[in-house]
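Obj.: predict assembly geometry.
Materials: sequence records (below).
Method: joint structure prediction, all chains together.
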Amino acid sequence: MLEELRLCAPSWDVCVVDDGSSDGTASVAREKGAVLLRLPINLGIGGAVQTGYLWARDHGYDIAAQIDGDGQHDPRHLAAAVRPIEAGTADFVIGSRYLSAGGFRSTALRRAGTRYLSWFLGLRCGAHVTDPTSGFRVAGRRAIELFAASYPSDYPEPEAIAFAMRRGLGVEEVPVVMRSRQHGSSSIGPGRTLYYLIKVSLALILLPVERRRNAELSG
Amino acid sequence: MTNPLLPLELQILACVTLLAFSGWVLYLVRLQSLSLRDSLLWLLSTGVVVVFAIFPRLLQDLARAIGVQVPSNALFALAILYLTLNVLSLTIVLSKESTRTRRLAQECALLRAELDAMRARVERLLPA
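Observations (raw structure tokens):
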């Protein structure tokens, strides 16, 4: 993954977030010369991703891309995903596997869940996002600052889109082709899909209160 | 004074138990195992229960006022409310703490990365 990033996106600084793992992520990242953000305790995906955004904010980056470490995301799509931000038409770009033909698309059940979330997100905050659970994202400066200050935990992807929409950030999608994981398995098994959907729906309904609280915390 | 609601022995037992409990809470505060702020809800709610143990008539009046037939049911309802409030306050504290722990862990990761960068620079400048 890191090799590929260096080949496809040589101008990017790479930062690896190691969420308390013991699988040698740290030594691989060091070996490849990436910045390593090693969390002393396991925070889960929300806390881990936010750590990356904190790093980007503190070091003054104008654009930060977020890519899963399991090989699902192809760094070749980075250039296209960055374009809307550089053009100033969006603050937050999501790589959607449903806008492109082919590639890995997950099971029918997951697809139905995704479609529901996409519909609900549109209903709740007017976002037109076809792939709300995609972990392939590029954030501009405003999005970096927002996510560094407040980022949802647990199953954060759809909620993060809602956060961005609520703050009036421009959200766009670009087509990407996803591959099946090179290693590891999804954190969401079939039995948990329902829990996932309920939790995320609730989180989206409760959004305004949560935002106010976060604003207090960060302000 | 004879009290048809609560036999004297039971009243004394309840008071002793509750006072012992309050004493334990205060002891924990003095041991610094429990902060004074967190102990206040326990002391306050225990105090209310003591008042009901000493004056069971109050409980009876309260039961009548809210339309509960059996005073002991009002007692159970109050007890459940008491526990619920205490557990809720506990959960709020816990949520706040986990947010703070998350921040600390993130800060830790950021500082480690800074340290890595500094170490690399120092090693470049001063090869061992």
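Conclusions so far: The longest helix of chain B spans residues 71-125.
To do: check interface contacts against the pulldown list.
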